[in-house]
Design brief:
The chain has 178 residues and is mainly alpha-helical. It has one domain. Helices cover 67% and strands 0% of the residues. The chain has nine helices and no strands. The radius of gyration is 17 Å and the shape is globular. The termini are far apart.
């Protein structure tokens, strides 16, 4: 099973390198949302390029980047924010976690991988990211922890959850002078 899962992960990575999973509507929506606030955009880009732990340790105390990294690190779903498009993901948290967990638990073959790809590249992108960051065992453990810790968020959209979490880190607007 591990061999077939690794083969699927490599295939997914190859397809994403060819742009198969790359440019999509969610990523475009996410970029439009991020463009509204350059500090938040910069923080998310740093987290995705350097990793959540690195930004948590290196961001200046009190900065927007430090706030976002801290909130994502403490959030049970924070690891998923590293996937492009996650900030505008409309899937319900419980459904998405179940799909990812199912994908990781299956005895994956080329036929199953094709069905997974038809089901949506999103699940493959989340699974690929978790496996790349944590390995197969780590990704499985992370998903189990996410599922047990997110009961209150189960019916919320993943993107809505991340946007409210991240938006709470915006610097308050200066009061208007009279």
């Amino acid at each position: 099973m591990k061999y077939s899962l690794v083969a699927v992960a490599v295939g997914t990575l190859a397809l994403s390198g060819c742009g198969w999973f790359g440019d999509n509507e969610k990523a475009a929506l996410e970029q439009a949302w991020l463009a509204k606030d350059t500090e938040i955009q910069s923080a998310i880009e740093q987290i995705r390029s350097q990793g959540l732990d690195a930004v948590s340790k290196s961001a200046a105390a009190g900065s927007v980047a430090a706030c976002i990294a801290d909130k994502l690190a403490k959030d049970p779903l924070g690891d998923l924010a590293t996937v492009e498009g996650a900030l505008t993901e409309s899937a319900k948290v419980a459904e998405l976690l179940a799909s990812i967990e199912s994908a990781l638990a299956q005895d994956l073959s080329l036929e199953n991988a094709a069905a997974l790809l038809q089901k949506g590249a999103d699940v493959a992108a989340y699974a690929k990211t978790l496996i790349a960051e944590q390995g197969l065992e780590g990704a499985s453990k992370t998903l189990a922890a996410m599922a047990s810790q997110t009961e209150a968020l189960a019916s919320q959209d993943l993107g809505q959850h991340f946007q409210s979490l991240i938006s709470s880190c915006k610097a308050p607007a200066a009061p208007a002078a009279n």
